[in-house]
Amino acid sequence: MINALADFHSVFGLPDQGVRAVCTTRQAGSSQGIYQGLNLATHVGDDSEVVMRNRERLTHQFDLPGDPLWLNQVHGAQILEVDQTPLCERLDAEADGAITAASNTVLAILTADCLPILLSSYDGSRIAAVHAGWRGLLAGVIEAAVAGFQGAPVCAWIGPGIGPCHFEVGPEFKALFPEPGLLLDRPGQQDCLDLPQAAHRCLHRAGGNAIGAVRALHSLRGGYLLFLSQGGCHGPICKFVVANAGLTSIAVIFNRGARFIDQDLLLHLGS
Question: Would you say residue 267 lies in a domain?
Fold first, then answer.
């Protein structure tokens, strides 16, 4: 597990707005066997009591203002509007993303191969976390999340997930993802889907404007940073190195509600 929260906006060259984010790894934690390390998922067969200890460790190590909001992720397009949902209905709500304008509300996304995507308005007044696999991309989960910002400028981070050289898919994906460049044609082998690039294009369309060329994410040790606004995207796409994620890791985002800067936290969503 990494040991520092990131000032989310500083990564984009924007003023600190109190939004903090973190992406965990498999390191540390109490899980054993095939779940070795910091498994945070209760749905994969791990001992539930051990998972609860891992979750408590996450909250304490990063001094989170509350327990993360855990979702029952189903590869759909439902985005939970946290501020409009009664507390009793938030726990394990069936959704693949959450959005809030409330301070000190911790949003969380569990991932293995799928992508975690964290978003914030420029002023930090609204944040979101999205679980994006290929089914969710086709269902429109990214567009649904961006729509929740109601046209306000947004910055988004596409976190670590399966790389395009390893995501082998069947021939039916040619019809599912017909855009050029999303399927890597490998003669004599199965095609591979560039999931990060597909997610980037969804954000791209949701932002309403074209972006220049984007390098493919060739390993799990990286993520894309980009700016979205009602008028489109601003600035270059930047590669941001994060720690290698595994089954099952988590991306977390929250707004402390008060602006502060700790120079030791400005550099890393992982190291």
Answer: no
